[in-house]
């Protein structure tokens, strides 16, 4: 593992909204607990003060990434042209916001709503995904930015549930700034194991979410993280490794419901963040010393 992998944290550990006060707290706490990158969800970000946020991130010396999913009313995997257009507009706005914040990565479920679909993806729906993401990737390339296709479980999308699905979609989009984003929480539900998909994705891996099977404290669930970190090392992954965790203690009005965050898995975000940072650092250290 390269010691330069930036270790990130999702802003929902700190705050459920993007008001000025919440953004300041998220940035301060991210810095204080030793992380190098803060990931904002643009799911509920209407009131985000982009300029002020960028300034505070720069002052704190933090990198930033953005993520989002779409909505059933604004969904590029729909067959309805108006619904697709609303999804494409959301993505275009999100890309510009990410750039204005100083970020180089926009990732997540950029290809569908985050929610349970009642039927499989249609042929026309998939064509729409490819076409919209080709346009978005072309704008991203002008900005020297990367798009991530986060592989999500079957209850949150019907577009890509495995690394193999994601590679196929990325092939069809055909842009070299569209990379794959693996998340151990989703992999646990859909993949055979946490290792083979990492090797399958190889140098097309662009972003990583570390989450437990229940999205709470790392190590308190049943995921065996060591083989996953060894696989990241084996493929020479040098990108961000971002801790993602959710609890009913911190609620974002839209996102928390879409992700079915019903349980209180933690109340003290700072304790959680410190624990996760130490956990990830130890995993990286173990691999480096074993190598
Ligand atoms: Mn994730």
Per the CATH scheme, the topology name is: TIM Barrel
> How much of the polypeptide forms β-strand, as a percent range?
15-25%
The major β-sheet equals: 8 strands, parallel, barrel
Number of helical segments?
Answer: 10
Rg, rounded, reads 18 Å
Distance between the termini: 9 Å
CATH first level: Alpha Beta
CATH superfamily: Divalent-metal-dependent TIM barrel enzymes
Can you give a write-up of this model?
Helix content is 43%, strand content 16%. By secondary structure, it is α/β, with parallel strands linked by helices. The protein has one domain: TIM Barrel (Alpha-Beta Barrel), CATH 3.20.20.150. The protein has an eight-stranded parallel beta barrel with strand order 1-2-3-4-5-6-7-8, surrounded by six helices. Helix 4 links the parallel strand 4 (105-113) and strand 5. It starts with 6 loop residues before the first strand and ends with a helix.
Secondary-structure map:
Blueprint: E1 7-10, H1 20-32, E2 37-41, H2 50-60, E3 63-70, H3 81-101, E4 105-113, H4 123-142, E5 146-150, H5 163-173, E6 178-183, H6 184-190, H7 196-201, E7 205-210, H8 225-234, E8 241-243, H9 255-258, H10 269-290
Parallel strand pairs: 1-2, 1-8, 2-3, 3-4, 4-5, 5-6, 6-7, 7-8
Helix pairs in contact: 1-2, 3-4, 4-5
Bound molecules: manganese (II) ion.
Short key terms for the protein model shown above:
about 290 residues, alpha/beta, TIM Barrel
Provide a compact summary of the structure.
With 291 residues, this protein is an alpha/beta fold. Helices cover 43% and strands 16% of the residues. It contains ten helices and eight strands.
């Amino acid at each position: 593992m390269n010691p330069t992998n930036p270790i990130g944290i999702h802003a929902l550990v700190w705050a459920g909204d993007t008001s000025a006060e919440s953004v300041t707290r998220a940035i301060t706490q991210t810095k204080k607990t030793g992380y190098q990158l803060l990931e904002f969800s643009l799911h509920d970000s209407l009131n985000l003060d982009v300029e002020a946020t960028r300034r505070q991130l720069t002052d704190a010396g933090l990198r930033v990434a953005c993520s989002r999913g779409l909505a059933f009313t604004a969904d590029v995997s729909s067959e309805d042209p108006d619904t697709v257009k609303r999804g494409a507009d959301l993505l275009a706005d999100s890309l510009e916001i990410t750039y204005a914040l100083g970020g180089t990565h926009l990732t997540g479920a950029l290809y569908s709503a985050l929610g349970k679909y009642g039927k499989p993806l249609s042929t026309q729906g998939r064509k729409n995904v490819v076409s919209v993401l080709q346009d978005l990737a072309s704008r991203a390339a002008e900005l020297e930015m990367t798009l991530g296709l986060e592989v999500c479980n079957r209850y949150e999308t019907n577009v890509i549930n495995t690394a193999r699905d994601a590679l196929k979609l990325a092939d069809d989009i055909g842009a070299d700034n569209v990379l794959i984003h693996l998340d151990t929480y989703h992999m646990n539900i859909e993949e055979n194991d946490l290792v083979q998909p990492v090797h399958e994705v190889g140098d097309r891996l662009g972003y990583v979410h570390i989450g437990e099977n229940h999205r709470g404290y790392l190590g308190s669930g049943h995921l065996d993280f060591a083989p996953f970190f060894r696989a990241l090392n084996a493929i020479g992954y040098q990108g961000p490794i971002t801790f993602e965790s959710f609890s009913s203690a911190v609620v974002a009005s839209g996102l928390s419901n879409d992700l079915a965050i019903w349980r209180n898995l933690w109340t003290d975000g700072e304790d959680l963040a410190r624990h996760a940072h130490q956990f990830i650092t130890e995993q990286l250290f173990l691999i480096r010393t074993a190598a």
